[in-house]
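Table 4 source record.
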Amino acid sequence: MYYPYFRGKQFELILLRDNAEFLAQNKIHPIIEPVKSNFKALERAMKAINEEGGDCTLIVNPQVGQKPVLTTNILKELIEKDFKKYKNLSLGYMMHPESNVSDLVTLLRKYRSFSFTILHYGYTNGKKMADAIKTFNNVKTHVFIEGFAGKLYQRHLKRDDIKRILIRNGFKSQKKNAHYPPSEHFSDLHITYPEEGMDGFGDYLIVGDDYTETGGPAYAVAIHLTYLGADDDMFIYHFISDQTDSPTDPGGKFLEALAKLAKEINKPKSYIYKSKACLEYLELFQKQHYPGLGYVKKLSMQHHIELIAEYISRAS
């Protein structure tokens, strides 16, 4: 039902590895786009997910990064080796504006023993796509990226035996952390996806679709935390440090932002779900400890996953 989209940065892969049991138990299906040519961390994460019996999609033709990871490397070093034994692994193929559908057909034919997830991210000829894949029974899921796959395009690919997932980027990225508002709307797709004709939904968590190799200097530190408001509509808090005019003292800035988060959580009628990630935030506040910005982002991503799992469990 829930398909969170990850870029394979180190802290994201650690998050997946550490939460493999939780993901499997809650039927959360992560989509991973590799961004590093060194596959060690990716292999550990995928192994953990597989051992817990969790479903997962690995994109074999990544598009992000200055030098996207080569498809041939992913296929030879992962798919044709240890990953071929993974029963719940789906091969993801990204159809972008420059894609050639014949390349997809070649892979569908060569890797017939794998299920495939096709991600629609700017390719426009839905009829040609539908005609090309209609004889392949290993296409199991279509993932439509909102804004890059219109309704008419989607109509060509509607089949009862293929799942349809819609991914929405709920995170409104700002160039500077200081520019985020205290709170804003995130998404209602976790509630409305059936009305979109979908079998499930996804997002880019609290990171957004924009990809950068590394972050710039932190003039301000922001902690992003999603929450459910009225009617279970989803919003996001942006807890911003008081210091915003210098790239120094990231630890001090984190503690300033963390103090605001702790104050909001401890309000008598707080909207914030007390996830394991949030409890860890409170421990960090109590200890006045700064774990690094990558770890902070990992915690907020974990909270988002826990929040959606709690909603699905409650709503089902």
